[in-house]
Specification:
- Chain A is built from 13 helices and no strands.
- By secondary structure, chain A is mainly α.
- Chain A has one domain.
- By secondary structure, chain B is of the alpha/beta class.
- Chain B has one domain: Rossmann fold (3-Layer(aba) Sandwich).
- Helix content of chain B is about 40%, strand content about 15%.
- In chain B, helix 1 packs antiparallel against helix 5.
- Chain B is globular and about 50 Å long.
- Chain B starts with a helix and ends in an 11-residue tail after the last helix.
- Classes of the chains: A mainly alpha, B alpha/beta.
- Chains A and B meet through helix 2 and helix 9 of A and helix 1 of B.
Chain lengths: ~290, ~180
């Protein structure tokens, strides 16, 4: 968990640095997000809108940590006996539900604040989730059909024992998953729910101080979780930590670099995008898994 | 261990360090000074180097940046925004208008001296101050935080009666919610 936190926060710092370099700026130091989170934790926080508002960020971080517990971070038993319990023999379908839980908790918490920006942000975020979950689930279903297992470790073992990566075994599902990933990370064309210039940061607009710190750390952990999950199911997992960092960072650059050069979609444009080509590739992936393989 | 005197001091130093290097600003763009904020934060002058970052809502922000003159009508909104911010919070008065009224010194509906109404930690002089001056003002604030002198929010709490009296003189129909800080 500490690993996920540190790596996730450093990725956030790298993203800010890379964004700055793309925009021809110097940018903040890579440890800037640590300072931000530390400062936010040390702020006094006296906002009270009701008990659900206090629980919302807690739900979000609980969901992130729980889904972190349910994905195998390294292949095999890991390089150390203490890390053995990081390889829970997890089930992919359960994980799909677990990953949505954090967004729902945030939605409930933000809904109670009564801020109109939060309400609009939540409705936008949930509609966008309906958009990208469909190609994502189709891609995962294609994998399950192809390997005839719903276990995460089973998927990783399948790739290791056959010596291939699923991204070559079922390329259409991989394309669908990557396109869905663009939405999952909420970078630029799909940052519809947060939209600082329209919604003043959307669901988070009434959360300051320690709540914001909880949400930032939860977001860092959760982005690491999503990356490790995609690396596990499509890129054959990682044998050691260095490979893990290389693979996740390469994968992370897809939404980040696509996001830097893009403006923002409107909500219906974003949903139409996800129900277009990504869903098509997802369906093709399922057909490919059933009939060709 | 936390209550031990030396370790308390170390914790304060770490907190002040992170506070100093991560200033989320809420730019209250009332006057013409708001035009200087985009160049300060974008590619040319790049305030993000110093950890200065724009935030969209008062709940998330640390620094309230009053850019230029305040009309008596907007003072109410500034006070509400300021009181919604979470401690520790700082205010930067931006431009001559916040110091003594500037070119609006004889206007009937602008607030002349900002520090009568909300506590100001740093003033940036000029009409308009250039982005270099704005960044210098932020670095001045960082130095004050490092020395532990940026305590405008505590002064506001101590002298609340005095500030409220001044505010009520300007805002005739006082219908303000009470925020819990």
């Amino acid at each position: 968990m500490l690993l996920a936190f540190v790596v996730g926060v450093f990725y956030g710092g790298f993203v800010r640095k890379i964004t700055a370099r793309v925009q021809n700026r110097v940018g903040p130091p890579v440890y800037q997000n640590f300072l931000d989170i530390l400062k936010l934790y040390s702020k006094k926080t006296a906002i009270n809108h009701g008990w659900m508002q206090h629980l919302g960020p807690a739900f979000a971080i609980t969901a992130s940590v729980t889904s972190l517990m349910f994905i195998p971070i390294l292949n095999g038993t890991g390089w150390c006996v203490w890390f053995e319990n990081l390889n829970f023999k997890g089930d992919l379908i359960f994980l799909l539900y677990m990953m949505v839980f954090g967004s729902l908790g945030m939605a409930l918490g933000a809904g109670q604040t009564g801020n109109p920006n939060s309400a609009i942000g939540v409705s936008r975020g949930l509609s966008q989730m309906v958009g990208y979950e469909i190609p994502w689930v189709l891609a995962i279903v294609a994998l399950m059909l192809q390997t005839k297992t719903t276990s995460l470790t089973g998927l990783v073992d399948f790739q290791v024992s056959n010596g291939t990566w699923m991204m070559f075994e079922s390329p259409f599902a991989f394309i669908a998953a990557v396109l869905a990933m663009l939405g999952m990370f909420h970078y630029a064309p799909f940052d519809v729910p947060f939209a600082p210039s329209e919604l003043s940061s959307g669901p988070a607009s009434e959360f300051g101080g320690k709540y914001l710190a909880l949400m930032m750390s939860s977001g860092s952990i959760f982005s690491f979780v999503k990356l490790v999950l995609i690396v596990d199911v499509f890129l054959g997992g990682a044998a050691n930590l260095i490979m893990l960092v290389v693979k996740t960072f390469t994968l992370y650059m897809i939404p980040v670099l696509y996001g830097i050069v893009s403006p923002r979609y409107r909500t219906e444009q974003s949903i139409r995008y996800f129900w277009g080509w990504p869903t098509f590739f997802g369906i093709v992936g399922v057909i490919y898994a059933v009939f060709v393989r | 261990m936390i209550n031990d005197k030396n370790s308390r001091k170390i914790a304060d130093i770490i907190q002040d360090f992170s506070r100093k290097h991560s200033l989320f600003m809420l730019a209250y763009g009332t006057g013409c000074g708001a035009i200087e904020i985009p160049p300060t934060t974008t590619s040319r002058y790049d305030a993000e180097r110093f950890g200065i970052r724009g935030m969209a809502t008062p709940r998330q922000a640390d620094v309230l940046l009053i850019t230029g003159y305040l009309a008596t009508k907007t003072l109410k909104r500034v006070i509400r925004a300021y009181e919604q911010m979470q401690d520790p919070k700082y205010v930067i008065g931006f431009g001559s208008c916040t110091i003594n009224g500037g070119m609006y010194w004889d206007s009937y509906n602008t607030v002349k001296i900002l520090s009568d109404y909300i506590p100001v930690d740093v003033y940036i002089n000029g009409c308009m101050p250039r982005p270099e001056a704005v960044i210098t003002g932020f670095i001045e604030l960082q130095n004050l935080i490092k020395e532990g002198k940026a305590n405008g929010a505590e002064q506001y709490k101590e002298n609340l009666e005095w500030y409220r009296e001044n505010q009520r003189k300007v805002i005739k129909n006082w219908k303000m919610p009470d925020y819990n800080w």
